[in-house]
Amino acid sequence: MSLLNHPTGGYRVLPGIAPYSRGVVSAEGFEIVHVTLERPLPETEGFARIREHLAQEGRPVTAVCGIELRSPRPFSFDGFAAFNASYAAVLNEWGVFVGDVNPVARTNVAPEVEAPESPSFYGFSYTRACERSLPPTFVVAGAGELPEGILEESAIVRRGETDADAIAEKARFVMDLMEERLRGLGVGWDGVTAADVYTVHPAVELLPDVILKRMGAAAIHGVRWFYSRPPIVGIEYEMDVRGVRSEIRLG
């Protein structure tokens, strides 16, 4: 699928499914800025904090292009759909949607330790103006071991298996998704500045061959392992990546 231009956001979109896109890449003359919140904010407060920050930066709400959530526990497939509907409705009310497409790339995981009491915002990304000659920046949405566009339990890779071989196969599948999305955005591993892995299963053995060697030059930045579960019961491994020049922490 070709990239979709966001008319007011300063970025282009690799469309995904109703709740989120597969990724976003900055338009010429813009860069994507990544923000981490010092403490997760409940959903309503999180949306308000985004609006406040964008107003301070002189950017429209349509500049938001990435959101990272933390949930109390993994959802059932039906529960995930219900949450997505209410979450996406806010973005639609803001005018962020492009037609029927939700352009915002998203990661949503459930920390195994110190999980929030309700779905909460951990971080977000937005665009701002920059020199037109600078290379593009991008965010690839989180993905687990499900084929693109399918939210069905039966489609989970090695469903119900959590031994080392199964987790490695899941991780390879997710790496394939990351690479497909990078190509779809017109970028590559050489532009990646951060790679995040989300699983409660041992990840150390995956690092040398399954993850870092495939990352090429980006491997110099390492990988952050979040001891967290993907957002849906039955999915065991998730990953996201981004390539940005500007990282901000907000209290």
Describe this structure in words.
Strands 1-2-3-8-12-9-10 form a seven-stranded mixed sheet, covered by helices on one side. It has a six-stranded mixed sheet with strand order 11-6-5-7-4-13. 25% of the residues lie in helices and 30% in strands. It starts with a strand and ends with a strand. Helix 2 links the parallel strand 5 (64-70) and strand 6 (105-111). The protein is an alpha+beta fold and 251 residues long. The radius of gyration is 17 Å and the shape is globular.
Q: What's the gyration radius in Å? A: 17 Å
Let me know the number of strands. 13
- What shape does the CA trace take? globular
- Helix/strand-derived category reads alpha+beta
Can you list the strand order of the major beta sheet?
Answer: 1-2-3-8-12-9-10
- Taken in chain order, the helices and strands follow as EEEEHEHEEEHEHEEEE
Number of helices: 4
Give the N-terminus to C-terminus distance in angstroms: 38 Å
Q: Could you report the average pLDDT, rounded to the nearest whole number? A: 97
Largest sheet: 7 strands, mixed
Helical proportion, percent range: 25-40%
What is the element layout, followed by pairings?
Elements (H helix, E strand, L loop, with lengths): L3 E2 L5 E4 L8 E4 L3 E13 H14 L7 E7 L6 H18 L10 E7 L8 E10 L8 E7 L19 H22 L8 E5 L8 H9 L8 E3 L1 E2 L8 E6 L2 E5 L1
Parallel strand pairs: 4-13, 5-6, 9-10
Antiparallel strand pairs: 1-2, 2-3, 3-8, 4-7, 5-7, 6-11, 8-12, 9-12
Which keywords apply here?
alpha+beta; 4 helices; 6-stranded mixed sheet; 7-stranded mixed sheet
